[in-house]
Amino acid sequence: MKPTVIALAAALMLLSTAALPSLAQATTAPATAGAPAEAATVPVGQVVWNLVPLYASDAAWEAERLAILAELPKLKALQGKLGDSATQLADGLDALSNVRRRLGRLITYSSLKADENTQITENQARNQQAYSVYNQFGEASSFVNAEVAALGRDKVQAYLAAEPRLAKHSQGLTTMLRLAEHTLGLKEEALLAGAAEALQQPQNIYGLLSNADLPWPTVKIAGKTVTLDQEQYVAYRSNPNPKIREQVFKAFWPVYKAYERTLGAIYAANLRGTVFNARSRKYASSVAMAQGNDNIPDAVYRTLVQEANAGLPTLHRYLKLRSQMLGLKSAGYQDVYVPLAKTSRNYSLAEAEQLTLASLKPLGEDYTRQLAQAFKGGWMHSVPQRGKRSGAYMNPAAYDVHPYLLMSFNGDYNSVSTLAHEWGHAMHSVLSNAAQPFETADYSTFIAEIPSTANELFLVDYMVEKAATREEKIFALSQELEGMRTTFFRQAMFAEFELKAHEAVEKGEPITGEWLSKTYLDLLKRYHGDAQGVVKIDPLYGIEWAYIPHFYNDFYVYQYATCVSAAAFFAEGIGKGAATGDTALRDKYFAMLKSGSSADAYPLTRAAGLDLASPEPYRALMRRMNRTMDKLEALNAEHPGKASLPTPGH
Asked: Per CATH, the architecture of 299-376+413-638 is what?
């Protein structure tokens, strides 16, 4: 399997005290209007990242790759010696940590270059080389978990007390001891590490097929010829003209449907690889393995799915309100993205940055000052261009440099919100890196989406507050509701789909593209109230599962839903505190973000004031969603109908 969205594969994480962080992705690909720009036409520094701080050239990167490879035999030579003394353990873990640190920087450069344009073969080849080094590192250090487990808790505690240099490795050692029952013998660990490269191929194949090779149709939309690829689909699916929306859906989804068998086989291979790892490590299930690595209670995942289903009447209320405001007698799935009010304007990147800074004032002057400076640092690639990886992410793996961000900024509100989201990730890494050594600077995905989604909520609250007209207020309120729909309900639906798919493999059931589409379609209909006449779901749209790259990062997406619930808690509380001068919750919030992986994620969130294994955070989010709908309904009652909507076709 390829590294998970925030951390690299769990096997590598257990080698020492932290994993190599990787990509923190936005919930959906940002919308892109019009034809993609070419990178060469965009002012460098404003919208294209500067990779020179990583390596001055491709040649410098290649020299470092060879240098890291030369270190691997030295790491392998540590086998059998870690437990000889506290000093030997500290020396060995330091050596492993130093190579991981360099490897994180190596992979950051290669993956960023590869994602700029997936059609450049040289960059894809370089990225494959980087992950080959990562896999070789995993093989060379595969003995560590077993050796630490063999030492036992008493001896490890004695070594920690005797050697101060082990303090930064304490959490990693504790985790290895906790997971000792899932740690295999030396030969078996080496075998699993050697299999990692083969098991990550389904994700690689899917990425190339989906981003570079699918034959996108060319269609005429409002007199304009458009290549309806992923970004253009996102741009046009929210068109105010219902005929255009239907045209876009009917043209886009058959492309995935035509490859249903192949895409199904690719994802089934990914599922079987995950189940293989779970069984090899003696976990009861795939989800238990995913939760076990970060010590997250199983109740968190199960409670989320339970509460999302219990909250479906709230989602259905929102979807019916949308249909009423859009003047739709019968809503279809193609209607769920159209905005309920026109925006007053488009935004430049600089304006989006200023809006983000203004909305985040409740987080304090130090936070906004650091963020304003980071905006100027060449950390982000935001220009849309052909072949660029879809979606958005923040990559924090270059601990000694700074985070890097990718998105496609097109000037609409969704782009502004995506910018605030990804920079929430980046500032999380900035805060954690400043407070923690490399070994504990990484953070669990369980916490990772809290600051990013909190930033989105701060932004939308600011937009509601500053709205000058009824239309602007309707737009801002509807954006808040849409954020809760996509970040809570949509991600919970994804989580339920993932759980069903993995459980089917675990039961030995056959997995085909057709089965995946049927399973997804059933969920799509239930969540959108098809049987109740809320939103009619065309069977074609069951193929949407094949569009979601996050499914290749097993059991990741549920954390968007848990984190938006946590983010709502923090945004509301910190906002109230800023108004009254009470900074207690803000202090707890920053303490959590600065903690990195110095403790397990679940206790860190509880220390900050909430329990995501209980129903209450999710029910509180439902209450917020209903309060927002009350405001929107009141505004709509003033002038019911479609008066505030964009003009169809414009």
From this structure: Orthogonal Bundle (1.10)
